[in-house]
Amino acid sequence: MGLWVPGLRDVYRARRVVERVLGRTPLLYSRPLSRLLGAEVYLKYECVLPTRAFKVRGMVYYVHARGDLGGGVVVASTGNFAQAAAYAAGLVGVRCVVVMPEGVSRVKVEAVKALGGEVVFHGRVFDEALDYARWYAEREGLTFVHSVNEPLLYAGVGTMHLEVLEDLPDVEVVINPIGGGSGAGSAVIVYKTVDPSIRVVGVQAEGAPSVYLSLKRGELVATGRADTRAEGLATSRTYELAFKILHGRIDDVVLVSDGEMLEAARMLYEAERIIPELAGAAPLAAALKLREGLRGRRVVLMVTGCNVDGETLSAIAGSKG
Predict the structure, then answer these.
(1) How confident is the model at residue 2 (pLDDT cuts 50, 70, 90)?
(2) What is the CATH number of domain 55-147?
(3) What does residue 303 show for φ and ψ, rounded to 5 degrees?
(4) What is the pTM (predicted TM-score) of this model?
(5) What dotted CATH number matches 8-54+152-318?
(6) What strands, in cross-sheet order, belong to the sheet with 298-303?
(7) Domain ranges of the chain
(8) 272-321 pLDDT tens trace
(9) What are the C-alpha distances in Å from 178 to residues 232, 287, 318?
């Protein structure tokens, strides 16, 4: 399927499937964070989804909309997309193979297997696993699904932003982390179509700023590195579809450090008893940097995932204000 750009109509089509299979996730008003930021702050809590992260929306829609999957799907992933693929493939009874680079935590490997996925290890970095996944799919007669360049994923993921609009029609600012870009890209598709004055702000890790640099320079940038413990943000390059959607339409991209994300995760726990993964805490870290510009506004922070390993949990508990 070519790199067509989904529109709002596509997101509405996806909603019929996603809401039936997954239901809705809550949008929670946070009194403590509202006081802290001097704004009206809401949290979109994607952690209640079956895989504890937003990406399952995209894959659930993909397997239902695509139809013939050639017996199964093959993806490359180091985290939440792997679980999303395994879960969605199980819904329609097809095989799911996840190619992971060496060194992925055992917790994530076991999570994929528990959902019925098969794990194949290849390469030292994600891009090597991605190339192998394409080859593997062709060899086995399976369907390769790119985690960023597949348009149907954006339509499915965009349903979380439709829910925000329905629950908070007067939203003024939405802050969404950027790893590959499907979350922020679908935010742009939804909000900028409905009302261009709604500000969409993306967040990347300082050690993995490929999308930030690409949007600043107006061209695809590959940094060749992803120096962050926020696995959901650990991308070393910008992919074509995300760039096509975000360029010229997203209002801002903010860079945050791992330390700032750890502190934001601790604050989310203290404020609302939510324990987010670092990518899910990144919007609050960005909001703290943007505090002056957010005062008096209705702000939604997208808590996109809560798959926290033991080491990160210890680091969150040990972070200091």
Answers:
(1) low
(2) 3.40.50.1100
(3) -85, 90
(4) 0.95
(5) 3.40.50.1100
(6) 27-29, 40-45, 298-303, 173-177, 199-205, 252-256
(7) 8-54+152-318, 55-147
(8) 999 999 999 999 999 999 999 999 999 999 999 998 888 888 888 887 64
(9) 8, 14, 25
